[in-house]
Amino acid sequence: MTDDVPMVSFEVMPDPLLIPTVRLMLRRALPNLGSDDDSLYFGAFTEILANAMQAQAATPDQPVRVDLSLDARPSVSVADNGPGLDPQASLNPNRAGGRGNGLLIARSACPDMLIDSSASGTTVRLPFGPGPRR
Amino acid sequence: MNRASVPSFTVEAVLDGSPVLIRVSGEFDLTSVDHFEIATAPVPTSVSIVIDLSATSLIDSAALGAILRLRRDQTVGGGTVLVRAPRPYQRQLFEVTGLLHLLEPAV
After folding, report:
1. How would you classify the pairing of strands B20-28 and B9-14?
2. pTM for the complete prediction?
3. Chain B residues close to A39, C-beta within 8 Å
4. Which candidate in A33, A99, B23, B25 could, as Cys together with A37 as Cys, close a disulfide (CB 3.0–4.6 Å)?
C-alpha cells in the first residue's frame, strides 16, 4: 500500500480574473477528455472556483486552495474558508436562470462531485472524467 | 485545441442583419461577461437577436446570466432573443438550468 499519489497544490487569491489562468494550468496537467467533456469539466471547475472565491470575499487576503490529485482517476479539489453552504438549497433544480446555478451546473457535469461544507469552510472535489451522456 | 494555448474570447455583433447576429467564441465565463455586454449594448432593444454560441468552448452561469439580462431588456423593448447552441455540452447546460426555451429551433 502506498499513499504517495502525485499531488499538485497551489493557492489562488480570490480574484475572479485569475480563473482563466488557473483553468489553463489544469488543462495542461490533465489529459484531454475530448471537446464536449472538456467543456463540461472545466465549466464545472469554473463554477466551483468562482463560488469559492465568492465565499472568501469577506477575507480577501486569504487564498483559495486548489489541489490536483493525479491518482488513477485524477481529481481537483477547491477549498475555501468561507461561511459554508447548504448543498441541498444550492442544488435546487427548480431554480431557472444564470448565476446562482453554479453547483447545479457542476453536479450535472460531474455527477461524482463531493461537497464537504461546514461553518469554517467548504471543500468541493471534482473527479476527472466524462459527465453523463444526454 | 492546442493544450498550451489560452482559449481566447471574442464577441462580434452583426448589426445590419435581421435578426441581429451576436457571434461568441472561446471561453464565455464571468471574466468575459463585461465584453459581451459592451458588444451588445448598441443593439436596439426592439429587434430580434440570435446569439450564436457554436464556437464557445466553455459557458458558465455568469454567461447565462448575461444572456438572460439581454433577453429581459429585449423583451421590454419589444425585441426577442434566441440562442444557437448546437453542441451537446451546450444543450446540457441549458437543459439543467431550465433554459431550453431560449434555444433556437433546430433547422
Report:
1. antiparallel
2. 0.88
3. 56-59, 87, 89-90
4. A33
* Fold (topology level) of B9-102: Transcription Regulator spoIIAA (3.30.750)
Q: Which residues on chain B are in Cβ contact (under 8 Å) with A53? A: none
| pLDDT tens column, B47-78 | 999 999 999 999 999 999 999 999 999 999 99
So what's the architecture of A7-127 in CATH?
Answer: 2-Layer Sandwich (3.30)
Q: Contacts of residue A32 in chain B, CB cutoff 8 Å?
A: 3
Instruction: Give the closest residue to B39 by CA, choosing from B19, B72, B77, B9.
Output: B9
A25: its cell numbers:
494550468
Q: Average pLDDT, stretch A38-42?
A: 92
Q: Which amino acid is at B17?
A: G
Among candidates A16, A105, A134 on the partner chain, residue whose Cβ is nearest the Cβ of B30: A16
Among the partner-chain residues B62, B92, B99, the one whose CB lies closest to the CB of A96 is: B99
